[in-house]
């Protein structure tokens, strides 16, 4: 039997790197779209770079996306690329709309024109729920996004549904709640905290400066969530799913747990707050109901909150030690 072929936008990102590893282990031929940068940023994929084929392309450039679909001739397309940092979406709202909203239409158009029989996954987000209308949030909960990023993702979500309904494409959205890992970007709160805790442990920093400590998130492990993306594309019918853990914790809880990993009970001694990290509009409370994914996809998260925090703190300590050797 011929190996399946997958095309991933955002392969150099956190999720793209875990998804590529997951698909390689299933003997897929994996293609990834990478954009031009002045120096390559392949840290997350270096360990398997020789096993995947990288195709130059950009979410802003229709021709490059269409050409990538021609080259890859994929059975499955995973659209993970985006301007994914919520805070930046206020300082670069138009760019966020171009990448995160219209970029989705461009990838869908490339698929519609070149390979309409392929299956399409859109990386939708719990940020679409924003000011939540019910708790926990499920696939039927209405949206009230609170940032230009959330608004752009809501567009990406609906254009995916629209292409499914207009052209009968197999196009699905995974509404994923926050998921983290040692590969998370340093600007996101979890990694900022675990990196800060690791630096404090090694005597390289004295404190961490954060914004809103009261916001609550449903945090899972990225390595668990990429399996759910794949499962959505293995179903007989295209549909949308919430992927979450069903548990939430405040930023303060995360900080407390991270300091406990290094044996420090008095986390408040090390944490400062600054208005710099307060957002113009906040998403205060997210918690996902993943019962549909559990029932239909037979998916459930495997990594607990405590193990996730421990994994991230320990990985950051190791990384800092390695870098200082
Ligand atoms: P990430 O680490 O920030 O990765 C984003 C990827 O998009 C990177 O590979 C980046 O490439 C690429 N990209 C950005 N702009 C691009 C452009 N103009 N053209 C081509 N590629 C571009 O994000 P992630 O955490 O893996 O998230 C993956 C997707 O899931 C994103 O769409 C995100 O919005 C969404 N999502 C994430 C979460 C979460 O908690 N992680 C939850 C829900 C939804 P460079 O390496 O060149 O920057
Ligand atoms: O880690 P964050 O920046 O993630 P956020 O905004 O929840 O977005 C992430 O999850 C979404 C899914 O819901 C994705 F769609 C999106 O792409 C991204 O992956 O912030 C989490 C919370 C916020 O309430 C923020 O205000 O942490 C709070 N926070 C407090 N101090 C901070 C900080 N966030 C950051 N980044 N930095 C701080 O110093």
UniProtKB/TrEMBL annotation:
The keyword NADP applies. One of its GO terms (molecular function) is GDP-mannose 4,6-dehydratase activity. SUPFAM superfamilies: NAD(P)-binding Rossmann-fold domains. The active site is at residue 154. Pfam families: GDP_Man_Dehyd. The keyword NADP applies. Its EC number is 4.2.1.47. It is an enzyme of class 4 (lyase). It catalyses: GDP-alpha-D-mannose = GDP-4-dehydro-alpha-D-rhamnose + H2O. Residues 7-312 form the NAD(P)-binding domain. Keywords: Lyase, NADP. GO terms for biological process: 'de novo' GDP-L-fucose biosynthetic process. Its cofactor is NADP(+). Belongs to the NAD(P)-dependent epimerase/dehydratase family. GDP-mannose 4,6-dehydratase subfamily. Catalyzes the conversion of GDP-D-mannose to GDP-4-dehydro-6-deoxy-D-mannose. HAMAP family: GDP_Man_dehydratase. This is GDP-mannose 4,6-dehydratase. The lineage of its organism: Bacteria, Candidatus Curtissiibacteriota.
């Amino acid at each position: 039997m011929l190996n399946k072929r997958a095309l991933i936008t955002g392969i150099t990102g956190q999720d793209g790197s875990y998804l590529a590893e997951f698909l390689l282990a299933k003997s897929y031929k994996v293609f990834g779209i990478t954009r031009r940068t002045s120096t390559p940023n392949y840290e997350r994929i270096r360990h398997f770079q020789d096993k995947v084929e990288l195709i130059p392309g950009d979410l802003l450039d229709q021709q490059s996306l269409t050409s990538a679909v021609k080259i890859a001739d994929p059975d499955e397309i995973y659209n993970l690329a985006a301007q994914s940092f919520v805070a930046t979406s206020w300082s670069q709202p138009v760019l966020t709309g171009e990448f995160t909203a219209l970029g989705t239409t461009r990838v869908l158009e490339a698929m519609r024109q070149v390979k309409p029989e392929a299956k399409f996954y859109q990386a939708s987000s719990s940020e679409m729920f924003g000011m939540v209308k019910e708790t926990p949030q499920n696939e039927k909960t209405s949206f009230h996004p609170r940032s230009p990023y959330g608004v752009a993702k809501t567009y990406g979500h609906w254009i995916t549904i629209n292409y499914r309904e207009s052209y009968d494409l197999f196009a699905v959205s995974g509404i994923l709640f926050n998921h983290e890992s040692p590969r998370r970007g340093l600007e996101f709160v979890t990694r900022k905290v675990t990196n800060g805790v690791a630096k404090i442990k090694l005597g390289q920093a004295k404190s961490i400066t954060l914004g809103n400590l009261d916001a609550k998130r449903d945090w899972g492990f990225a390595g668990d969530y990429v399996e759910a993306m794949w499962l959505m594309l293995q179903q007989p019918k295209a549909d949308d799913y919430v992927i979450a853990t069903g548990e939430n914790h405040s930023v303060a809880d995360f900080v407390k747990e991270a300091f406990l990993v290094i044996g420090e009970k008095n986390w408040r001694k090390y944490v400062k707050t600054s208005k710099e990290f307060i957002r113009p509009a906040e998403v205060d409370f997210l918690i996902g109901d993943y019962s549909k994914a559990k029932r239909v996809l037979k998916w459930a998260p495997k990594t607990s909150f405590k193990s996730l925090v421990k994994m991230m703190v320990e990985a950051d300590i190791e990384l800092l030690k390695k870098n200082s050797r």
